[in-house]
């Protein structure tokens, strides 16, 4: 790229807001620690992959890890190869995938309709969705999956344009990489746009037989890409691992989720909050919503892409907000089309008022948490056990500055001339809000999720040959922070006494606080809203043991 082309590219990024959006998210990527339990677990899987140079079968705590395919773990290791073993290196990689998704989405809209203003508007709407901004650097699978979905959908548009070979290649590649990212769910995220192709594509209507035959070939091609990893991994991982990756994490997960069970209507409740500020800011007459749906090829494409998939996700028992992230571009496209209609407008002051309210609450919460006796309703919750001293301690450590910054952003949206009606300004204010919230999390909660001291103690015991085990499942929490080279055994409470008898010189560690252990811990440190505690086995043997162990918690089992 020549200097002049590079300058024009940077100018375009600044003009459509992507450059400023990325700069707002950048501090989050650089300073937010890995959050338990998901992000820390995925880093531990990637660490074991690097440690043992086993890039075929992912492992967690020394056992094959079948809950997720390997692509994210491969990319994490690639980032570490370039920048070193840092959390920020991984977050920057995810942020790069988010920027790639924005670029792919803009190009996708431009191919649907040769309207540069619509493509720019749609991309800004997507960037401004607060949930997209929050997850834009998260060490999760959904941003990368969204990139794969958009890549696959470019293949569908190739078919619409009569470019069958390239479309087949892009679809197979998008499906294959999507399966390697998060499994066959990519077929839900992108497949309905192909199934309903004749509704939005003239080429599909004129060539239905070829369209659906090529769709089958694209799915087959994606399966071949995924099987190129899955078959050797199943052979190397053994029968149990093979059953897990081919059955438990596909058919069983769709029919009966193992965790995150929610009612049918749950997504309807959370989606309006996810797509702020647009749920409060977009105003248009009914005819704009109706006519955009009726006459616009791009909107029909978006509806075919997202609505059946959304319905399918509602029917699946396991639900999490981030499962919908690959469908948010379709919603952004529809909103962008509506905003281009006569009579449509932006009214962002309600979002500004919401930011001011949230900011005031965030600024005052630390004082309330530090002085619960001064507030009757808080004192009652503490007395009832609904608020623990550990929770109040964490909240009291958050700087009021973050709330003040949120109030400032909200005030700008409300009072600065033109801001509440500017698409780019509202999108950037949403990104700023997401960044403020995540940085507040990093500053206030970060010290309470930093397990490096505990992980170093575990590694010290292991290196010294001293037996150490974790009471209940630990989700691989300590492996990456401690750079552990040995698995950390898990001991259930019912087995704890026998373990201590067998290892009287050993130690027990746990971050669960519900167990009726009366022995004084040798080491105790704050963690989340509780503690990480270490006990010597000899001290545990000397205490009075309860007659019955408590029931296990949901967090004490491996990931679904």
Q: Give the % helix.
A: 55-70%
How far is it from the N-terminal to the C-terminal residue, by CA?
A: 46 Å
Strand content: 5-15%
Q: How many independent structural domains?
A: 3
Low-confidence stretches: 554-558
Class of secondary structure makeup: mainly alpha
Biggest sheet: strands side by side, in what order?
6-5-7-9-8
Largest sheet: 5 strands, mixed
Main attributes?
29 helices, single chain, disordered C terminus, 5-stranded mixed sheet, 9 strands, mainly alpha, 560 residues, two-stranded antiparallel ribbon, 3 domains
Tell me what you see in this structure:
By secondary structure, this protein is mainly alpha-helical. It has 3 domains: 189 residues, no CATH class; 101 residues, no CATH class; 105 residues, no CATH class. Helix content is 66%, strand content 5%. The chain contains 29 helices and 9 strands. The chain has a 5-stranded mixed sheet. Helix 3 packs across helix 4 and helix 17 packs across helix 18. 43% of the residues are buried. The C terminus is likely disordered.
């Amino acid at each position: 790229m020549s200097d002049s082309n590079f300058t024009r590219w940077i100018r375009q990024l600044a003009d459509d807001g992507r450059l400023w959006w990325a700069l707002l998210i950048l501090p989050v990527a650089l300073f937010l620690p890995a959050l338990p339990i998901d992000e820390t677990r995925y880093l531990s899987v990637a660490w074991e992959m690097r440690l043992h140079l086993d890039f075929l079968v992912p492992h967690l705590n020394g056992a094959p890890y079948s809950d997720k395919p390997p692509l994210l773990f491969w990319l994490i290791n690639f980032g570490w190869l370039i920048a070193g073993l840092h959390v920020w290196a991984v977050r920057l990689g995810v942020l790069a995938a988010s920027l790639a998704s924005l670029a792919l989405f803009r190009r996708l809209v431009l191919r649907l309709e040769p309207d540069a203003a619509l493509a720019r508007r749609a991309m800004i709407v997507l960037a401004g969705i607060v949930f997209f901004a929050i997850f834009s650097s998260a060490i999760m699978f959904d941003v990368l999956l969204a990139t794969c979905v958009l890549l696959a959908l470019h293949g569908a548009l190739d078919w619409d344009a009569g470019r069958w070979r390239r479309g087949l290649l892009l679809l197979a590649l998008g499906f294959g990489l999507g399966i390697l990212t998060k499994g066959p769910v990519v077929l839900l995220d992108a497949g309905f746009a192909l199934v309903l192709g004749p509704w939005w594509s003239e080429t599909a209507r004129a060539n239905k037989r070829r369209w659906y035959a090529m769709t089958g070939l694209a799915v087959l091609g994606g399966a071949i890409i995924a099987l190129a990893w899955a078959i050797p991994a199943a052979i190397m991982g053994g029968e149990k691992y093979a059953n897990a990756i081919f059955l438990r994490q596909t058919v069983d997960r769709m029919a009966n989720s193992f965790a995150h069970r929610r009612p049918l209507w749950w997504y309807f409740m959370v989606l309006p909050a996810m797509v702020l500020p647009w749920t409060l800011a977009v105003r248009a007459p009914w005819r704009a919503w109706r006519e955009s749906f009726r006459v616009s090829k791009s909107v029909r494409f978006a509806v075919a892409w997202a609505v059946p998939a959304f319905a399918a996700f509602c029917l699946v028992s396991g639900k999490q907000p981030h499962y919908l992230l690959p469908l948010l571009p379709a919603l952004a496209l529809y909103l962008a089309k509506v905003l281009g209609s006569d009579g449509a407008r932006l009214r962002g002051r309600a979002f500004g008022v919401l930011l001011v309210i949230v900011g005031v609450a965030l600024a005052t919460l630390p004082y309330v948490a530090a002085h619960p006796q001064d507030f009757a309703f808080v004192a009652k919750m503490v007395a009832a056990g609904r608020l623990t001293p550990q929770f109040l301690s964490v909240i009291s450590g958050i700087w009021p500055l973050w709330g003040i910054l949120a109030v400032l952003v909200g005030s700008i949206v409300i009072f600065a001339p033109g801001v509440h009606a500017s698409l780019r300004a509202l999108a950037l204010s949403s990104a700023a809000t997401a960044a403020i919230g995540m940085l507040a999390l990093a500053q206030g909660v970060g010290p309470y999720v930093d397990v490096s001291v505990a992980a170093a103690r575990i590694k010290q015991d292991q290196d010294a040959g001293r037996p150490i085990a974790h009471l209940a499942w630990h989700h691989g929490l300590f492996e990456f922070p401690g750079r552990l080279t040995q698995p950390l055994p898990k001991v259930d409470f019912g087995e704890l006494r026998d373990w201590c008898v067998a290892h009287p010189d050993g130690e027990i560690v746990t971050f669960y606080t519900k167990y009726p252990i009366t022995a004084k811990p040798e080491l105790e440190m704050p963690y989340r809203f509780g503690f990480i505690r270490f006990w010597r086995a000899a001290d545990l043997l000397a205490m009075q043991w309860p007659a019955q162990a408590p029931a296990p918690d949901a967090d004490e089992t491996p990931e679904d």
